[in-house]
Design brief:
Length: 397
Amino acid sequence: MTTAHDDARALYTELTGRRPDGVWSAPGRVNLIGEHTDYNDGFVLPFAIPQRTFAAVGRRDDDRGRVRVSSRFASDPVEVGLDELDRLFPTAPGASPAVPEWAAYPLGVAWALRQAAPGDGPFRGVDIAIASDVPVGAGLSSSAAIEGATASALDELWGTGLDGRALARIGRRAENEAVGAPTGIMDQMASMLGAPDTALFLDCRSLETELVPLGIAEAGLAILVIDTRVKHAHSTGGYRDRRASCERGAAALGVPALRDVSVADLPRAREQLDEETFRRVRHVVTENQRVVDTVHTLRTDGARAIGDLLIASHASMRDDFEISTPELDTAVDTALAAGALGSRMTGGGFGGAAIALIEKDAVETVSAAVNAAFVAARFAGPHLFTVTPSAGPHRDA
Ligand code: GAF
């Protein structure tokens, strides 16, 4: 049992004076490879991490049909009527949510779940208390973890009976339409469908999935997360711009999505696109191919052989998609110089974390090298920890 689990329970009791009906949790994720491919209908290969978000939830015994959410991220609880949800959401494109942003995640899930299963039947007011040990703003999907924990709890308490895929779609709808972040579906699918020791190979067009064994520990390896502690947000500038470039590129090339462009099409695309849009397109097209190649390599040669694909992915994000930062580049370059087999930034970029695939007994040397490089560059100290592919959502109590 983690601290965040106890914290969510304690917060619930502070809020209500009672014990919750249950505590549900969902994990954050690391994306092994496949960045900014999800909203281009492409491929991704994330895995769920041990860090989780916990939602302690209980039915209210008044008949007010209200949802009250409270979080360790904020001091004051937010309370709204179930019927008010339809007036609060969707948030107008580009506008801020009508509730504090942290509360738009769980309340957006409650809204989207009611929309997906309309009627008066199972919906009753609930109190929700949230605590998390997924670092916020680190590119490790703290938001998908809140959505996953809340969706799992409400699905059970409201008896909507949706499966993991459907609950991932609910989470994405909350993120896109309640919070107003124009993200793809990778994070919610990774959080809802992740499983121990495997990565989730996801086709973001069909939503078909395959769990691919990673065999990291068996190969004597570890995955080190280097959280640069430069916070990022997807509801703002850079992420939105990159998405718009991809849509422009697909339209100019006459395809529904960049998924429909192959590496062999790139020379022709270069003639049709301006230089910057071409580089954005080249990142997505080559990254899709790298995901497919990584899955193939994992199956044929194992985790030890995927290092060069991770390195190429980072170079593409740094040079073509331009979403890396000096801190992320320093993390990646230093990890590689200290012997990592592969390293890349993970998540949406503009801050957040990098990952490094390293020998299990090199955790201390690589960490020391990264810490020293950050001191030398006068960056804030990074947060370093290893992760193992872990379980998806469950009810913890
Ligand atoms: C963020 C988004 F939420 C995902 O949908 C995905 O686009 C990712 O950035 C980049 O691969 O995590």
